[in-house]
């Protein structure tokens, strides 16, 4: 069978109005795709939040080690104070105070980073609200 020139260049059929079943099928397809994208976003965001949690835990450990070092310096100051009862122990107390303040600051920062509200997947919740608004708009 030989193709004629006019068979090759036929125009596409005229657009027709889509039926309700076709619209509902598209809505179901798009909703499924949107749900998969939202799940992927939630996974990505939670991965970032878990990393943030790990950093906070590291800061807590670092702060605890610094506090321990400060405690050891305080013990050394107490020994110096008992043995010498002279000004060198004053220097040890100042060093211990500074170390303790630094350690406390690191511990407080780590605790702040591990608060529950910092672990909420905010972008995912915002896009879910936007998607719900979009779906309501499409149903009108």
Features:
140 residues, mainly alpha, 0% strand, rod-shaped
Describe this structure in words.
With about 140 residues, the protein is mostly helical. It has a domain at about 45-140. The chain contains four helices and no strands. It has helices at about 5-10, 20-85, 90-115, 120-140. About 5% of the residues are buried.
Q: In which range does the helix fraction lie?
A: over 70%
> What share of the residues does DSSP label as strand, in percent?
under 5%
Radius of gyration: 33 Å
Find the count of extended strands (DSSP E, 2+ residues): 0
Query: How many H/I helical runs?
Result: 4
Mean pLDDT: 80
Structural class, judged by helices and strands? mainly alpha
* Terminal CA distance: 51 Å
Q: What's a concise summary of this model?
A:
With 140 residues, the protein is mainly alpha-helical. It has helices at residues 5-8, 20-84, 88-113, 122-139.
């Amino acid at each position: 069978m030989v193709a004629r020139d006019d068979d090759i260049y036929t125009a596409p059929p005229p657009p027709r109005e889509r039926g309700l079943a076709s619209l509902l099928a598209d809505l179901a397809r798009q909703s499924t795709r949107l749900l998969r994208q939202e799940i992927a976003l939630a996974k990505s965001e939670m991965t970032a939040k878990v990393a943030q949690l790990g950093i906070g835990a590291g800061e807590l450990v670092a702060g605890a080690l610094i506090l321990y070092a400060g405690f050891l310096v305080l013990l050394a100051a107490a020994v110096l104070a008992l043995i010498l009862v002279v000004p060198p122990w004053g220097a040890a107390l100042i060093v211990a105070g500074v170390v303790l303040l630094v350690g406390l600051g690191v511990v407080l920062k780590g605790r702040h980073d591990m608060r529950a509200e910092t672990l909420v997947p905010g972008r995912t919740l915002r896009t879910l609200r936007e998607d719900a608004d979009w779906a309501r708009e499409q149903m009108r």
